[in-house]
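DUF3043 domain-containing protein: structure, please.
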Amino acid sequence: MGFVFRSRAKEEKAPADKAVVTDSKQPRDPQAPKGRPTPKRSEAQSQRRSVANTPTTRKEAAKRQREERRQALERQRQALAGGDERYLPARDKGPVRRFARDWVDSRFNVAEFFLPLAVVILVLSVVRVPSIQSLALLLWLIVIVLIVLDAAVSGFRLKKRLKERFPGENTRGAVAYALMRSLQMRRLRLPKPQVKRGERP
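Here you go.
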């Protein structure tokens, strides 16, 4: 009669414990499927690297962001110096912008000489001689008129060349981009000029 009053909880617990022990000691068949595909070595290594490189604190995350930003700026600086399209700023990317840059760099522009001319005119205007000051004022007017005329002609010609070279493509903003570049001295332009003067882009 003892089995009648045996605790049911003990009976239920005992087989469960045995099952757990039995399952843990049972060796897995090497041919049995694991339920998931085995990752490639490169994928496993990349996952381990990503886990190892994951910042654990806020300070480490901020340091990582600063380092990544510094590297991005360095790549961009090298791209501006060498013309690498991959790391150029968005405003300089694309074949249209590259053609506009090359077109400006291949010719002489009046606006690029504005800074040295402005220095000369400023020096002349400081001289306390009425005739020289009048000459300085006249030179100011001549330089401004020449810059405006050269910009108008250059913009018209470049717009025509862009339509011929890139029919059906979006060339919006390329003329203004080129004219802004023409205002800079050649040696100070970024990205650095990739064509020589007189060379056809």
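Notes: The radius of gyration is 37 Å.
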